[in-house]
């Protein structure tokens, strides 16, 4: 508890990181409470009117309220769509990040602890996968698995667990050599206990850092896939699809359809990365004052 | 049969080459592919309730031998028997009767585990105490090693080096071992704290009737607490005997030189500090000299020493020494 | 005139947790060719004292008070440029871990030449001659050939010899050696101690030998300064301090050595632990662990001189001399 408090005190000193954290929290809250905030449910196709399509920001539509950020080609209120889109993005990013963290950390720590053949097998597969761009792998998988949230998360996990595995493996191999692990093995304690109670907790700091960055990466990867039309169905527009939907109108002056979702995406990803950087700096003893 | 018997133990470390290194070696690059004999055919015995000191310079294999006896490393050849029972089966340690205190108390305690929990987890796992009574059990050991039992709720970083070493000792003793391996337990402590831990060790050993293997490069500490001592050089034991006798009349030329090289305060003599360096350096363990490993540095070496490795043999004075000419060395 | 004259040196570290007074009132002098042993446990300030002498204290630490006069020139407050000019030429340092001070990518010869050229141009032939001469002096066999070797090709003891040779390149007035044999084996340590003793005698370089090991320091040093909690608590000729320690801490340190007791018997121990420099009690820092401590010890004793030696204690072992 004391450690946590000291960590927070140090975090607070970096104004930019603090601002970024506020942004992340704010955006997350907006996304979570989107149904309560937004004037419109953008998934309810019956509530949409093509009359309202592609209207500029400030337009008062058939619903009787102002479209602060304008509307998209289907006549959706863009602000509502963005908030719902953020909701999906964060959901998918978190889910994919956490599942990839669990799988990757398990594999990496197992490889480091077991050594020998198991280590060879796991780490060669991981290295092989790391030599491919994540986006390529995700593309192929989504194309194979089909559309849908579960499939998308599956593809993102498959594309990203390797980063966690590498990080966990690196942390675990250096921790494993330390005397406290040797002491636990010499007691002797069961391998499962050594791994879960000793090795894992001491490997968490670098994993937390990678997790923050990878959640941001999942979000942008999901947006990329959706932009390419391989993400979620059209009935549930995520940020990537909104950008994609507005893309044909970019040159005709209807910039808002693409730009506002894009801005939302960039703000979220940059904020998460700044928070992640700060956490990394704080965990890195060499940068410690 | 002795309480602890180390029976012709050899421990080799093969180089663990990565794929790249293997390829490089195949292409003729300078990659070390030879194995090191860290411990070479060592036979030792310790009687119940006695303390054996294991001394030697870095790389002599004393720590590796300690880890083999402790059941942390499996021997490549030979066996370690405690009360006639093997300490290890295959690569698994099968007894809790041997416990270890490590050198660096900053590294040997899990930084993310409360120290009370660290002391309790082994005994709970092996049924030495019930989970419900664990706190009481731990408090008992804390008091025993001179720590406030209320500190069980703290983390390692809240303690000084000496206190951490007390915790590490409590953790080892809470397993109720019959044999305690101490791997340089005071080497990383401050001088004024060393004496505290040595005194604690002496008390506990007496009260619990512990048998100990005490690994140290500090000869004055070994002289103070060990009944017998074994001197190692490049994986082999070169001399073994009663501690006092070895210090008074070392039988092996290496022991003699090693004892002389340690600066020692002589407060009642003419000169304050007495020491004499050994010539040369310890050869590479990858490529130890033929015959007696000590021959290139030994002032008494003869042709036989360069050809034939001397066996550890019993001398008339009850000492074991691995030197062809142990009886014929000039006095002094 | 003394080669080095340190007066009331205070080096503090301004950390997040508070001010750490690592060195808090250290004074000593060093004559030409003299070997001074700086003895203390971890946290006693001995290493920070050494770093302060070379102007190598990094933020958040800084010298807040005191004076360091090297060959009559005041070093405290001197610009970095002027300090750099003196470092290596007038005062140099040997560290505990030679691996950390030698560049793994350069040969020993290249590094020695760079060290030589740091203070003016040196011809390549002259550099080789000088380097070879010094490697020979510190006892490295076939020095000319070894100039072409990289640090990893040397053993730990030989590497420390190279570090000493580099420190000696410009024949400085003072060398500060920070635990240079702690990482080495006893047989190698003994060799280096012998070499250093001869070198100091031969070159006239004064030496400050920092160590936690009384026996090791005493094998070299003609005088000792014992440090505790950032202060020198006792200072004087080695033999006098060892045979007749006056400060209770020094006496405790000597008495606690295993060599001072019958084998198997309890050692004389100093109770308690070394204090945290963040929260030192007022008065004598050793008082909480001291069996001699009284009411008087709540105010801080200063180092008082008694002939050739001095101690900072109100109740010295053996009483106060008349």
Write structural notes for this entry:
The complex is a heterotrimer of chains A (289), B (332) and C (322). Helix content of chain A is 72%, strand content 1%. By secondary structure, chain A is mostly helical. In chain A, strand 1 (59-60) and strand 2 (66-67) form a beta hairpin. The longest helix of chain A has 37 residues, at 78-114. The two termini of chain A are 21 Å apart. With 332 residues, chain B is of the alpha/beta class. Chain B has helices at 19-26, 62-70, 115-125, 134-144, 161-173, 191-208, 219-225, 243-248, 253-261, 303-307; strands at residues 4-13, 36-46, 51-55, 77-82, 85-86, 88-89, 92-93, 98-101, 179-183, 211-215, 228-233, 236-242, 264-265, 273-274, 313-314, 320-321. In chain B, the strands form 4 sheets. In chain B, strands 8-9-10-3-11-12-16-15 form an 8-stranded mixed sheet, sandwiched between helices. In chain B, strands 2-1-4-5 form a 4-stranded antiparallel sheet, with helices on one face. The radius of gyration of chain B is 22 Å and the shape is globular. In chain C, helix 4 crosses helix 5 and helix 5 (124-137) crosses helix 7. Chains in contact: A-B, B-C. The interface between B and C is large, with 43 and 44 residues.
Key words describing this protein structure:
heterotrimer, A: 289 residues, mainly alpha, MetI-like fold, 11 helices, elongated, C: 322 residues, alpha/beta, Rossmann fold, 8-stranded mixed beta sheet, 12 strands, 30% helix
What integer value in Å does the Rg of chain B equal? 22 Å
* Percent of residues in β-strands of chain A: under 5%
Portion of residues within helices of chain B: 25-40%
> What coarse outline of chain B follows from CA principal-axis ratios?
globular
**Given this structure, which CATH class of chain A is correct?**
Mainly Alpha
What is the multimeric organization of the chains shown?
A: heterotrimer
Question: Which shape of chain A, going by the Cα principal axes?
Answer: elongated
Determine the CATH superfamily of chain B.
P-loop containing nucleotide triphosphate hydrolases
> Spans of chain B of 5+ residues with little confidence (pLDDT < 50)?
none
Number of strands of chain B: 16
Strand order of the largest sheet of chain B: 8-9-10-3-11-12-16-15
Gyration radius of chain A, in Å: 22 Å
Could you say what the CATH architecture of chain B is?
3-Layer(aba) Sandwich
Poorly predicted regions of chain A:
none
Q: Residue-averaged pLDDT of chain A, rounded?
A: 85
Name of the CATH architecture of chain A: Orthogonal Bundle
Instruction: Give the helices and strands of chain B as they follow along the chain.
Output: EHEEHEEEEEHHHEHEHEEHHEEHEE
What does the average pLDDT of chain B come to?
Answer: 90
Euclidean distance between termini CA atoms of chain B = 36 Å
